[in-house]
Specification:
The complex is a heterodimer. Chain A is α+β, with helices and mostly antiparallel strands. Chain A has three helices and eleven strands; from the N terminus they run αβββααββββββββ. A six-stranded mixed β-sheet of chain A has the order 6-7-3-2-9-10. The two termini of chain A are 33 Å apart. The longest helix of chain B is centred in the N-terminal third of the chain and has 22 residues. The N and C termini of chain B lie far apart (84 Å). The chains are: A alpha+beta, B alpha+beta. Chains A and B meet through helix 1, strand 1, strand 2, strand 3 and helix 2 of A and strand 4, helix 3, strand 23, helix 9 and helix 11 of B.
């Protein structure tokens, strides 16, 4: 079974390429699933996550591996789904959290001929490893990817100070994107 | 004209001189990079205040500031007003004409530099698709709150001991107070400041301290927990290395302060329980006889004893009081003072004894509302004691009479001397019980260890967190992982080197040696990466014995003093006898990562020079090569060669191949032996008799960070062996090195960093011969994890998401 994900702002994927000057007063949406505000200042909880996007030559797949601190994820899941979630104990909680992550993450590739495609990443699963919850997605590798445009809002709609690092690994090169502040959509050119 | 020309010339040459100095030593030919260049030009020059060994110099000084504060808490208006009397002793060699104060509450003003320089954390509107912008209700709430709440310190009066008003100038989160007359070295001055402020709503702004409201409590209007910190005008540290450390508080870099003695009186509602830095001075006034008896009992108890039981706290929070009570606390030689007050507090305590220490009895105490519940009663106080136990072993005896953990919901965790605020809570279930998840339990244990650990770093070893966050967060995260593993080895505490590799290979990062407010990704930069580095230093570079001695020496030298990074770097070298400049340079001053590759292994065997042996070995080698494919195929087809068809035609060469030894070679061998010196003969004989295997291994460094090369050899007989090559192997060629390895047994495979202790980011090139390293997803699938795909839960997942109006998802089979 495949699950095609389109995120809340998949539209903005394309718009980043041709954004006009605002000429009118724009609408503002308010996001309700929100714990807190700007100045979260804690000496311990580390609101950061890492996503690896690996062009895996051994399997011929593009693999997406999201890593979250379990404690962060558990609190976020409680807020998002409106009831208590226990990520270590409950596989249902973990899968619920995965579905949330996948809905806050999308990849659009631009091919060397300038055509574009939203990658329909397949859900693989999730697992607990140490302090971390990993969420896995993948898709058969596509050729001639010239650039990637990524949306990563996971936990960032819960905590505005959440920072998500994305490392793209292809041909022994590493490309990094950091989603923090107002950065919801980021693009990066990949070397040929 | 000439004059203008001359002046211009001087300016130009001055600029040139400055830039030359800033660049320091440079490699201007070739591309060689000296990864082992000593830090001499990077570290500040040693002086009489800080010596070249990293210890306080013979003229080391620091200021002393004593405070006497009278504070009144207005619960109904969440407001604090106070008078503070300050005695400032100038131990510096300098004359001071003004003093600087921190007014940290000013950070919350809507016009503060923190607020004005904060960037928008939402999305922009999109003209093309008519997408609206998004902003969270939380962000709107905090904007509205900061506009409405009238936050920040209000300074009502500043005067000297003769009640002369002193000129004071507020600069953001700082205030300069001009002294009536210059304060000479060795003199002291008394000041008085009257101030008040509205306490920050913790649920809105998530500050380090503020108030938490419980509107649903039985008492009309609900209840509050007040966490009061960074609450009084505090003297900015005046130092030998920076002068006044008067840098605006932007919210990220915390602070450093001066040590001094405190006497603080806190007038609060009479039914409140107060937890504070220091020791309670008037228990007879504010505690019942029963509570005092319980406190005495707790001193020697096996398990924490309730001073206020859950039932008493519940009754307490339902009522309220119109009376007030004044709690008096005193603390000696501390660098700050914080407190907490609430009628909701359950209070438990247990004595911790340190035999032979200056402070033999330490009261470990926890204060928490019913919302903290059994999670807190089970673990908080015990974890406090465990932390003191472990940290003291690695540094020095805990010098203070109390160590407290207070449950404040909006704080993740925050530390002050003798008191910490920690966030974890239980969940109220429908049946009225309170439970907590495994993750919450682990978080409580972890956060209490971490914050209590801060009592040592930086509350006693007084580094400046605003400049060098890693100095307390990194060192403390290292030690909290040590204490965590000693609490329960089954709990994953992190700080394993492999957890930091994704961060270290990423392109978006800054060196650890970056001022706190400018750091990108503070968590990995100031906590995990330095903590991982210190762990690696201990376990892999220095070894536990040398590391622990040096770290303890650093802690001892700088307890109640003010270390800088150079002092830490120098002490660790000085006490261990190990040159670590390359390590500090690589891990703290650059953004290099570790990726060592074993590119090639050559196997060799020593020639004996004896033709009767060597020639037959060569014959064997020749035989071991695969035969000609074409000849084999001819044979398979049954083709006979001319020689095979004409066996009667033979000569000498049919019986003697090219490896046949004649006396020409034997004579040459004998004269070779005769030509050898005695020692040469011995070496040759031994090498021949041992007949060892010789391997040349070629390594390259892809990450840039030089590290030891840790090797595991797997032998043909199934055994294996480890070899550790020090990082210094890279000193003359940091990009690639070769090593000759001699073994008795034949090697079949080699692994670099087999236990993954160096944070090497690419494991695949650690193997020779190469092996395919499955990715996480591949491993996950091979363990059957992939079978989760397609379960019915997928349907449930989609159903849940439909309730979220922000999303647009579709599914295809």
């Amino acid at each position: 079974m495949k699950m095609r994900m389109r995120t809340l702002n998949s539209n903005s994927l394309t718009s980043t390429h041709a954004r006009r000057q605002p000429s009118a007063v724009f609408r503002v949406w308010v996001i309700c699933a929100c714990l807190i505000a700007n100045h979260a200042s804690v000496a311990h909880q580390q609101k950061n996550a890492v996503t690896r996007i690996l062009f895996n030559e051994n399997t011929g797949n593009i693999e997406v591996m999201h890593r979250f601190f379990i404690h962060d994820a558990e609190h976020a899941a409680g807020v998002i789904f409106g009831e208590r979630q226990t990520l270590v104990e409950s596989s249902e909680s973990r899968q619920l959290f995965s579905s949330y992550v996948m809905n806050r993450f999308s990849v659009e590739v631009t091919y060397s001929d300038d055509s574009r495609e939203d990658l329909a990443l397949n859900y693989i699963g999730e697992e607990v490893d140490g302090q971390f919850l990993w969420v896995y997605q993948e898709i058969a590798a596509v050729e001639n990817v010239a650039s990637m445009t990524i949306v990563n809002m996971a936990l960032r709609d819960v905590w505005s100070d959440q920072s998500n690092l994305v490392n793209i690994e292809r041909d022994d090169r590493i490309y990094s994107l950091t989603f923090d502040g107002a950065r919801e959509v980021l693009s990066i050119e990949l070397d040929a | 004209m000439t004059e203008i020309y001359r002046i211009a010339l001087i300016v130009t040459s001055m600029l040139w001189a400055v830039s030359l100095q800033a660049q320091g030593i440079q490699q201007t030919k070739g591309s060689f990079e000296d990864k082992f260049r000593q830090l001499e030009e990077v570290l500040p020059t040693a002086n009489i205040y800080r010596n070249a060994g990293g210890a306080p110099g013979h003229e080391y000084w620091q200021q002393e500031v004593d405070y006497n504060i009278d504070a009144t808490l207005d619960e109904d208006n969440q407001r604090l007003s106070a008078t503070e009397l300050i005695t400032y002793r100038n131990n510096s060699p300098d004359t001071l004409t003004y003093l600087w104060f921190q007014l940290d509450q000013n950070r919350f003003r809507s016009d503060s530099m923190a607020a004005m320089s904060g960037t928008f954390n939402g999305s922009s509107p999109d003209a093309d698709s008519n997408d609206p912008a998004r902003i969270s209700l939380g962000q709107l709430r905090s904007l509205q709150y900061q506009e409405d709440a009238d936050l920040g310190h209000r300074i009502n009066a500043v005067s000297d001991s003769r009640e002369n008003a002193l000129v004071h100038t507020v600069v953001g989160t700082l205030m300069r107070v001009d002294l009536a007359e210059p304060l000479e070295s060795g003199d002291e001055v008394d000041l008085r400041i009257d101030f008040e402020y509205n306490i920050v709503n913790g649920d809105v702004l998530r500050p380090r301290a503020g108030y938490e409201h419980f509107p649903d409590d039985e008492r009309e209007g609900g209840n509050y927990i007040f966490a009061l910190a960074q609450w009084f005008p505090r003297l900015v540290a005046y130092t030998d290395y920076e002068g006044w450390t008067n840098k605006e508080f932007l919210g990220s870099g915390e602070f450093t302060l001066e040590f001094g003695d405190y006497e603080v009186s806190m007038t609060v509602p009479a039914d409140h329980i107060v937890s504070a830095t220091g020791e309670l001075q008037n228990p007879n006034d504010v505690l019942t006889r029963k509570q005092r008896d319980r406190l005495r009992e707790a001193e020697t108890a096996e398990r924490p004893v309730y001073i206020v039981t859950p039932e008493e706290a519940l009754a307490n929070e339902a009522e309220g009081s119109n009376q007030t009570a004044t709690w008096r606390f005193a603390a000696e030689n501390v660098r700050d003072f914080a407190w907490s007050s609430s009628r909701k507090f359950i209070w438990d305590a247990k004595g911790h004894t340190q035999p032979g220490a200056d402070q033999e009895l330490v009261m470990a105490m926890s204060f928490y509302p019913k919302e903290g519940g059994s999670l807190w009663s089970e673990y908080s106080t015990e974890v406090v004691i465990h932390t003191l136990d472990v940290y003291s072993r690695f540094s020095f005896d805990y010098p203070y009479p109390t160590a407290q953990s207070v449950n404040v919901g909006f704080v993740g965790g925050m530390e002050y001397p003798m008191i910490t605020f920690n966030g974890p809570r239980t969940e109220l279930q429908d049946d009225g019980s309170r439970t907590y998840s495994l993750a919450e339990k682990r978080f409580l244990i972890g956060v209490v260890i971490h914050e209590i650990g801060h009592f040592y770093f930086p509350m006693i070893v007084n580094s400046d967190e605003r400049q060098w966050t890693w100095m307390d967060e990194g060192l403390n995260s290292y030690l909290d992982s040590v204490a965590g593993r000693e609490w329960d080895a089954e709990i994953p505490w992190g700080v394993e080197p492999r957890y930091i590799t994704d961060y270290m290979e990423s392109q978006n990062q800054v060196p650890v040696m970056t001022q706190s407010d400018s750091v990108l990704r503070l968590g990995p930069n100031a906590y995990s990466k330095p903590a991982t580095a210190i762990n690696i230093l201990r376990e892999t570079i220095m070894g536990r014995e040398l590391f622990d001695f040096a770290f303890k020496e650093y802690s001892r030298l700088w307890a109640f003093k003010r270390p800088t990074p150079a002092d830490f770097f120098r002490t660790m070298e000085e006490a261990s006898g190990i040159d670590l400049d390359w390590f500090w340079r690589g891990w703290f001053y650059t953004t290099d990562h570790v990726d060592i590759s074993l590119d090639r292994v050559y196997q060799m065997r020593m020639d004996t020079e004896d033709p009767d042996i060597d020639f037959s070995r060569q014959r064997e080698f020749e035989k071991s090569l695969p035969p000609s494919l074409y000849v084999e195929r001819n044979r398979a087809e049954g083709l006979l060669t001319w020689v095979e068809r004409n066996p009667d035609v033979r000569d000498f060469y049919d019986d003697n191949d090219q490896f046949t030894v004649t006396n020409v070679e034997r004579n040459r061998y004998n004269s070779f032996l005769e030509g050898l010196e005695d020692w040469e003969r011995e070496v040759l004989d031994r090498a021949i008799s041992e007949d060892l295997s010789y391997y040349i291994m070629e390594f390259s460094n892809h990450g840039g960070l030089v590290m030891p090369i840790i090797l595991q050899f797997d032998y043909a007989d199934g055994s294996s062996e480890e070899m550790r090559l020090p990082a210094e192997i890279w000193r003359r060629s940091p990009a690639a090195v070769k090593k000759l390895v001699v073994t008795e047994k034949e090697i079949v495979s080699v692994t670099v960093d087999p236990l993954q202790e160096t944070a090497d980011v690419d494991i695949e090139n650690n193997y020779y011969p190469r092996r395919i390293i499955p990715s996480r997803i591949e491993s996950f699938k091979s363990q059957g994890g992939g079978s989760l795909v397609g379960r019915d839960i997928m349907q449930d997942i989609k159903t849940e998401l439909d309730t979220d109006e922000d999303e647009d998802e579709d599914t295809e089979q």
